[in-house]
Amino acid sequence: MTDRYRWAALLLTFASMVVGSSAFALTAKEVGTAEIASNPDENWLSYGKDYREQRYSELAQINRDNVSDLGLAWSFDTEYNRGLEATPIIVDGVMYVTGNWSVVYALDARSGELLWKYDPKVPREWAKMACCDVVNRGVAVYEGKVFVGSLDARLIALDAASGEVIWEVQSADIKAYPYTVTGAPRVAKGLVFIGNGGAEYGVRGFVSAFDADTGELRWRFYTVPGNPADGFENDAMRKAAESWTGKWWEYGGGGTVWDSIVYDDELDQLYIGVGNGSPWNHRVRSPEGGDNLYLSSIVALDPDSGEYLWHYQETPAETWDYTATQHIMLADMEVDGATRKVIWHAPKNGFFFVIDRENGQLLSAEPYADVNWATHYDMATGRPVETDIARYPDGPELIRPSSMGAHNWQPMAYSPETGYVYIPAISSLFQYEDVQDYLHRWGQWNLGIPLQQPPLPDPILAQLMTTKMTRGSLLAWDPKTQSAAWELPHKLTWNGGLLATAGGLVFQGTAEGEVIAVDAKTGDKLWTFDAKTGVMAPPVSYQIDGEQYVTILVGWGG
Asked: Are 122 and 102 in contact (CB under 8 A)?
């Protein structure tokens, strides 16, 4: 690679130097619910590989002993020079991936040759409605179709073989509200599930299910209540409204489902991670208090009807942009001598949660990062015990984690070999302050707190303090003991998602422009590659003709 790639947005694919047995071919038309659930390891069929979303590949051709020989097989330039966040989907030797502006590329996974490209032609002016750049986290593939959500909130079904549009629907009303879509759709049971973004701009969050064959809307679940005068869509919204005060609907409410949506094929439940309030400041949107359901919650729904099943609210009365939209991972683990079906979750608020996914019961919550907004969780009530400074009652306060979170959208990974969950962790702080002169303006952030942080008078001192106060790391977390096994510090904060493999490795891209492989047991760095620019997307692995590949999008931003 040369310096001409320094500011490019690329897809990098690395290959092992040995060839094994041939892989079984599974065509895109054959990808259904059962196939995603039992995802063959030569493919990567869904955002988290399968419905458990553990991002673990059982391919072991690339391993601790030979990873130092890993070499670049091919690269593909995505044409733009902005941040890339997508997870590539690989089916039968074809890679489906998204770039900036929701553009979809189908590539030969052996060579990187472009097979087809689809550009949804998102109006460029809609970029101002996206809080965090014109990014996209990927597609879903199901029964011969490729599904993508566009920045201007369309859901589009493409023919997997040709890229031609099969159907297209508007998944949210952008004429009335500044909705966006950056998350990857999920597909199961003939339905495509998609959420949206826009909480910073004053929208009301929801998740929708569309018929995979026709694009017909099958159901919609709102995550926060609307104006009581208009009536409530269901009992869940009626119950939620009891936890809000004032005229919250005039501010939107927030609660957008902008990232994690996970189908549980064992329990036949759909889990959604719900976002922050709109505005952030709890005093503005709900002036007389209240928990504000279902903000910052994991909510379980019936996948066929969208009916509410249960919820667990991780951050009641959220006021820090502590979303629960981060990567939801499904697992089985022993708790008090019994095997429980659980959710592992490391949201923005800095606590690692173990939640019974059959009923939403909190089983454990321990801090995996520096926090000062809460001391612990009361296991009897399932609620956090907040500190005196948490809600900045006496003026500006420096709170940990920051609004960036102790973990953001970059996915975790899990290795059954070690029993560790690997987290792209962040240590940072943010000065929160109550601002009562809140104004609701179309196309502008509406937070109820100052977004700009106070500057330090000495720029050299500021740089030194910043490096001391904020940092990023690759954290190996043991969910059984709820403690760190090891931590690999990074020089910068905003690092990439993770992949764990049966070769005893964890792969990650970093903000400083490296792709690395570390020993999953110890965290020792075993291999590095100069990507020429920062990386935040998560790697995946697949196998073609007996050869294992690791691929990752390179492009920093967001």
From this structure: yes
Residue whose token pair is 């302050």: 433
Q: First-to-last CA distance in the chain?
A: 24
Rounded to whole angstroms, the Cα distance separating 196 from 126 reads 14
Q: What's the angle, vertex CA 38, arms to CA 36 and CA 42, rounded to 5?
A: 85
Beta carbons within 10 angstroms of residue 546's beta carbon: 14
Query: Under 8 Å CB-to-CB from 467, ≥6 apart: which residues?
Result: none
Q: Is 152 a catalytic residue?
A: no
Other CB atoms within 10 A of residue 144 CB: 17
Q: Which two tokens stand for residue 327?
A: 């990567």
The C-alpha atoms of residue 489 and residue 505 are separated, in whole angstroms, by: 17
pLDDT tens per residue across span 167-190: 999 999 999 999 999 999 999 999
Distance, in Å, from the CA atom of 284 to the CA atom of 151, rounded to the nearest integer, reads 28
pTM: 0.96
Residues β-bridged to residue 118? 104
- CB contact set of 70 (below 8 Å; sequence gap of 6+): 14, 15, 16, 17, 62, 517, 527, 529, 550
Contact 526, 64 (CB under 8 A): yes
Which of 321, 370, 458, 545 is catalytic? The answer is 321
Q: Where are the alpha helices (DSSP H) in 396-482?
A: 459-469
Give all domains of the chain, ordered by start, each with its CATH number: 1-135+409-429+470-558 (2.140.10.10)
Q: Considering the chain, what is the average pLDDT of its residues?
A: 93
